[in-house]
């Protein structure tokens, strides 16, 4: 195995087990423990709920299949940045990296760290300053672990991932086996709600295409992060085979966990409770164990959020490292630590900026306005498979299943998500698009500086 790397190169230390853990651990954060209410509130039928989660899982699998082919074609650090650069131009790749650092990826780190800190506050009282301090501490600790070596970071990620998967399996088993009384109460509550509805006390709207689309966006958000394992291709053992396998196995495992968890929620709680609860997993635990169950579930969510944060912190700097190697950032950002073989300066920059976003709270506005734009890049990435297939100077060891329909369907779905966002929130969408596009003149100024020998 290529565990040792020449000086100045990243160290290959991520195998299939750790790569799969990155996929699963990065996707499963805190969303599945709170996000079901967003979907149930939009889709007022059990069939519709499971259809949303199944379709969201299927689209995520389509994206994973697209990434798998591109990863086997371009097995180097940088992931989506590399694929956009190779399929279109360095300018498109630069825009992805630009949005990643200033808003998308750093914003995700700040958001997940804040969720982690809030759940710490559920166990130990924290004020606003305390919450932000804990969030920043989590970012800095995980950045330090990854600074010390990719093996340490990937082992930590794997440990948290498989532990929380076991916890989810335990929740599913306990919920169905011990939740009989709670299930009977839920049935009685649902029957009362149905009677009230028939009496005219409440009116439920049926399933519509618009409500299904809004619910699907919420479901896809819960699947976010599936592509991040590709950022670490340069540190993965046999990446042409390992990354495709990790993407497919990880996505299937997450989809199964999500559908099973929603089945438990609906088994234990009345439909209206699932639709309105902001902490549905804790409410389900309370239904089985009483009020103490919510505290136990909060520990699980805290653990899960910390594990997801570990994978996100690990992934991002590899993109900035790849951009620096391409001359699109200062060269010193792309230097590799002589001992730890990690992009240590990129890790430090990410830690500093993410901490600033946590401390100021500005990540909320930046993140909500820009996060939808990643689907523009995902759509372009999927169509990029069609472009790359025409090239004769590249080789691939994995071919996307269902080609060309899988990439096309995924691309159209991505563009539809963006169009829906623009219709629903036109002002925020324009501001978000402007924040991304401002990177274009920056790119051309930088490219001119580089080509004239000033860089």
What is the compact description of this entry?
The chain contains 20 helices and no strands.
What does it look like?
The chain is an all-alpha fold and 455 residues long. The protein has a single domain, classed as Amino acid/polyamine transporter I (Up-down Bundle), CATH 1.20.1740.10. The chain is 74% helix and 0% strand. The protein has helices at residues 16-27, 36-42, 46-73, 80-87, 90-123, 128-147, 150-178, 180-198, 209-222, 239-268, 271-276, 280-289, 292-315, 317-325, 344-360, 363-370, 374-389, 405-424, 426-437, 439-451. Helix 14 (317-325) crosses helix 15. The longest helix has 34 residues, at 90-123. The radius of gyration is 22 Å and the shape is globular. The two termini are 37 Å apart. Residues 189-193 and 195-204 have low confidence and may be disordered.
* Helix-and-strand structural type: mainly alpha
* Overall structural domain count: 1
Overall strand count: 0
> What percentage of the residues does DSSP assign to strands (E)?
under 5%
Mean pLDDT: 84
Spans where pLDDT lies below 50 across 5 or more residues: 189-193, 195-204
- Cα-atom Rg, whole angstroms? 22 Å
The helix count comes to: 20
Biggest sheet statistics: none
> Per CATH, which architecture?
Up-down Bundle
Distance between the termini: 37 Å
What would you give as the CATH superfamily?
Amino acid/polyamine transporter I
CATH class: Mainly Alpha
> Which percent range fits the helix content?
over 70%
Shape: globular
Instruction: Please write the string of helix (H) and strand (E) elements.
Output: HHHHHHHHHHHHHHHHHHHH
The name CATH uses for the topology is Amino acid/polyamine transporter I
Counting copies of identical and different chains, the oligomeric state is single chain
């Amino acid at each position: 195995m290529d565990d040792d790397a020449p000086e100045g190169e990243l160290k290959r230390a991520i195998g299939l087990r750790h790569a799969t853990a990155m996929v699963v651990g990065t996707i499963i954060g805190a969303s599945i423990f709170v996000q079901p209410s967003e979907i149930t509130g939009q889709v007022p039928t059990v069939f519709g709920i499971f259809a949303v989660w199944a379709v969201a899982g299927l689209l995520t699998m389509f994206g994973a299949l697209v990434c798998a082919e591109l990863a086997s074609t371009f097995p180097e650090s940088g992931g989506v940045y590399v694929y956009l650069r190779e399929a279109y131009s360095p300018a498109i790749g630069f825009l992805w990296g630009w949005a990643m650092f200033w808003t998308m990826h750093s914003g995700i780190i700040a958001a997940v760290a804040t969720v982690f800190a809030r759940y710490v506050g559920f166990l130990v009282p924290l004020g606003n300053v305390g919450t932000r301090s804990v969030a920043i501490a989590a970012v800095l600790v995980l950045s330090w672990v990854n600074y010390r070596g990719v093996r340490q970071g990937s082992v930590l990620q794997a440990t948290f991932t498989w532990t929380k998967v076991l916890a989810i399996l335990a929740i599913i088993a306990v919920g169905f086996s011990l939740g009989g009384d709670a299930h009977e109460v839920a049935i009685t509550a649902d029957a009362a709600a149905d009677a009230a509805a028939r009496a005219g006390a409440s009116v439920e709207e049926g399933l519509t295409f618009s409500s299904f689309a809004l619910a699907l966006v919420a479901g896809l958000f819960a699947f976010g992060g599936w592509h991040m394992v590709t950022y670490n291709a340069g540190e993965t053992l046999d990446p042409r085979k390992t990354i495709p396998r990790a993407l497919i196995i990880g996505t299937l495992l997450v989809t199964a966990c999500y559908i099973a968890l929603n089945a438990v929620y609906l088994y234990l709680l009345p439909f209206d409770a699932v639709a309105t609860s902001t902490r549905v997993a804790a409410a389900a635990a309370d239904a089985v164990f009483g009020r103490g169950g919510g505290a136990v579930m909060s520990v699980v969510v805290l653990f899960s959020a910390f594990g997801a944060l570990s994978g996100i912190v690990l992934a991002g700097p590899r993109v900035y490292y790849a951009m620096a190697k391409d001359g699109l950032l200062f060269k010193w950002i792309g230097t590799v630590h002589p001992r730890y073989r990690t992009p240590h300066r990129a890790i430090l920059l990410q830690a500093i900026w993410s901490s600033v976003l946590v401390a100021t709270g500005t990540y909320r506005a930046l993140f909500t306005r820009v996060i939808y734009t990643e689907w523009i890049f995902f759509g372009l990435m999927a169509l990029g498979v069609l472009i790359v297939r025409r090239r004769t100077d590249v080789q691939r060891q994995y071919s996307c299943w269902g080609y060309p329909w899988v990439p096309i369907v995924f691309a159209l779905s991505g563009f539809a998500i963006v169009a829906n966002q623009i219709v629903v929130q036109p002002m925020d969408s324009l501001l978000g698009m402007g924040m991304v596009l401002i990177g274009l003149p920056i790119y051309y100024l930088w490219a001119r500086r580089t080509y004239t020998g000033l860089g």
